[in-house]
Amino acid sequence: MSFPSISSYWFPRTARGNDTDGQRLISIEAVARGGRLRYRTAAPGTTASSAIVAAGILQRESFTRWLTAPRLSPRKAGKVVSTLLDIQLPFPIDTCEHAVVTLAPSPDRQGTAALVVGARHSDIRARLHSLSAIGVDPHILDQEGVALWSQWNEEYAQGAPDGTVAVLYFASDRVTISLGRKGRFLAAHTWRNPDVDAMLRSLKPYIGNERNAFPWFLAGPAAAQERTGAILRILSSSLGLPPAQTVHEPESFLARALARRALNGLSRRCNLRSGPFEHGTERQRRRRQSLLSAAACLAAGLALCGLNLAWRTAAFHRTAALQQDLHALAVSVTGNPRLVPPRQELFAARRSLQDRQQRSRPFMAPFVTGLAVPLQAVLDTAARNDLTVESIILHRQALVAHGCTRDFSGCDKSAASLTKAGWTTRIERKENRQGENLSAYVLRLTLPDENF
Amino acid sequence: MSCASHCPMKTSDTPLVALRTAAALAILAGLAANLHSLSGLRPQVDLWRRKTAERQELQSLVRQSARFDSAIRIHESWPSAAPPLESLAKSNFTGRLPASWTVALQPGIPGWQSRRVVFSMTDVSADNVLRFMTAAASARPPWVLEECALQSSSASGTLSRVETAFSSVERTER
Fold first, then answer.
1. Residue A376 and residue B150: Cα distance in Å, rounded?
2. Which of A41, A93, A127, B77 has the smallest CB count inside 10 Å?
3. What's the predicted TM-score (pTM) here?
């Protein structure tokens, strides 16, 4: 079996909608191109292999129900809906296929409202046989009433008033009325032969006070027939309605709806060809989709594992590179790899350099500022500021000068001058010497340990 | 048209189940591994920060070591020993010899030794002392002033006593 491309699975581009007017087939092909839909009449038996084929199950062969469930999560609400439907149906739910079309908060916001469509197995089987007889084997069996309303919503809802809208569909073998309001499907009714009284009874509850403004639309292959015109006139005069508007290309209205809904995925939620009736291609598609989803999940899982592996590898390499750098640097300090134990690089380098520092001190000494510089500076500034220097003791860390002066401000000037030159200077004033007009001082310079 | 497609068809779900199981396991394994890695991220980053800081300190030690090497190379380019301090003193103090004179030798790195000279003089000019220190520092290899004690006399610009200690590095063998 050949499969269409993956993109056509996820984003189908062609769909064919098949409507029946008695035994006559009305087939429309919808093609999505450049974000727009194009419809064209399709010749029977020329379906592209990748096209989705949709047909409608008639309103009289199916049912639609609005059910209200307690406000639950969508998954739980879906389960509850099945139970509620089982209670409402006059036949066992096991003998029918059903689908939840919409699941949203109910208008009163008290619960979850669900639109459910369904059909008995016998009706589905009969519909598939009748379609098969005219050469149609649909992948999707959409619901007629919902499809009619959906197409009106697509083509005419923009700018339309908020009130109830009716779409009357006339074919040679049936009449279907689909009703909705504010984009929401309400109900659908159908008759094998046009029964004006029944149609009046069905329409009346939906027509509000503004009868003159009630929008009702005419569609279907028999829309232009004289008999239809007569029925519409009776309805119009009996209900006081304005003339019905005929939709654009009324004959293919339902076929267009089926094709469009198949293409944009709406009909998959409304597909009654499910369970034992599921089309082989659809089953394959669903299966392949499941496989693709599982494969995507597997790929994501493997990507996560790969990401982790890549991170761990990168982290390992970065740590190893740093460790290698440390070892190489430590060896260049110690000069011997054996002196550098693993993970003690810094300790080994420090210890090695400490030893070398002691032994290299005499070699470094000529390249730092000599002690003659502060000595010269102290002698010069003392001479400038009229200070008498009596003794100086100088070693690597400090210079201490003792002396005396007549004017202590000279000491302050000297200290300021030496501080400006970059030495930490402290000056102490001593008591005046007996019998002399002199002040003793002690000048201390802290020399920076700029070497080594 | 046949109704084969209307009838249920059995399809083996084994590959799908296997794929889903594998996917679930892969995702779980991936998530667990990533969570484990994330939990170890902070210590890992701390380790890198510590190692980077260590590398910076080691680079600084390497530069320091290079300075030591450079200093030794410069000494190697100089004569094997500094000119005798005695002759420098003679030329600076107009033929006067120090009052006392001691010399000490201290072994250093292999092939080198440090010579330390301590001497004292009396009644010398301060200018002469400074000139002598400059001349000693200009010698190659230089004499480095280690310590110094000066005592001034009553006469201006004259030092009654000077005690200095110089050191120099010299080679022990040629």
1. 12
2. B77
3. 0.61
Q: Given CB atoms, is B55 within the 8 Å cutoff of chain A?
A: yes
Q: Which residue has the tokens 């499969």?
A: A3
Pair of tokens at residue A410: 């000279």
Chain segment B120-168, per-residue pLDDT in tens? 888 888 888 888 999 999 999 999 999 999 998 876 678 889 999 999 9
Is residue B87 scored above 90 in pLDDT?
Answer: no
pLDDT of residue A179: 93
Distances (CA, A) of A399 to A173, A425, A446, B137: 123, 10, 7, 19
For residue A3, pLDDT beyond 50: no
Query: Is the CB of B51 inside 8 Å of chain A's CB atoms?
Result: yes
Q: Are residues A32 and A141 in the same domain?
A: yes
Contacts of B48 by beta carbon, 8 Å cutoff, 6+ apart:
A318, A319, A322
Tens digit of pLDDT for each residue in A114-172?
A: 899 999 999 999 999 999 999 899 999 999 999 999 999 999 888 777 788 999 999 99
φ and ψ at A218, to 5 degrees?
Answer: -115, 130
Nearest to A350 among B61, B134, B137 (CB): B61
Amino acid, single-letter form, for residue A252: S
Question: Both A25 and A78 in a single domain?
Answer: yes
Of B19, B51, B71, the CB nearest to A360: B71
Looking at the structure, do residues A267 and A251 belong to the same domain, yes or no?
Answer: yes
DSSP codes, A68-97: EEES--HHHHHHHHHHHHHHH-SS-GGGEE
Q: Which domain holds residue A414?
A: 365-451
Which residue among B27, B126, B146 sits closest to A379, beta carbon to beta carbon?
Answer: B126
CB contact under 8 A, A363 and B67: no
Cβ atoms within 10 A of the Cβ of A13, count?
A: 16
Work out how many domains chain A is built from and give that number.
Answer: 3
Taking residue A3's Cβ as centre, other Cβ atoms within 10 Å add up to 13
| Cα gap A129→A292, rounded to integer Å | 33
